[in-house]
Design a protein that fits this description.
Distance between the termini: 14 Å
Strand content: under 5%
Radius of gyration: 12 Å
Mean pLDDT: 95
Number of domains: 1
Low-confidence stretches: none
Structural class: mainly alpha
Shape: globular
Number of strands: 0
């Protein structure tokens, strides 16, 4: 079951340089796709938020939709409100 803390951890890995924007986008896409197929569960009270954040992250490696550090921190802040 994917939680807000799990998503925060991945975003923090990207911010620290441990994870590239492409790797983060691929991870987000795979989690979102698995959720849509019923192969992944999101924490029930956070499911809508997690889905929205993953959707934002899915295209984060595309220059037109790139998320800078400030935008990533804003996503973390939104997720932390659900923790």
């Amino acid at each position: 079951m994917l939680t807000c803390k799990d998503v925060i951890s991945k975003i923090e890995q990207q911010l620290s340089g441990e994870l590239s924007a492409t790797a983060l986008a691929l991870w987000a896409f795979s989690r979102l796709y698995a959720y849509e197929l019923g192969e992944e569960e999101f924490f029930p009270t956070s499911a809508v938020l997690i889905e929205a954040v993953l959707d934002d992250l899915t295209f984060a490696d595309d220059a037109a939709f790139a998320l800078d550090a400030e935008a990533l921190h804003m996503l973390i802040n939104r997720l932390q409100q659900q923790v």
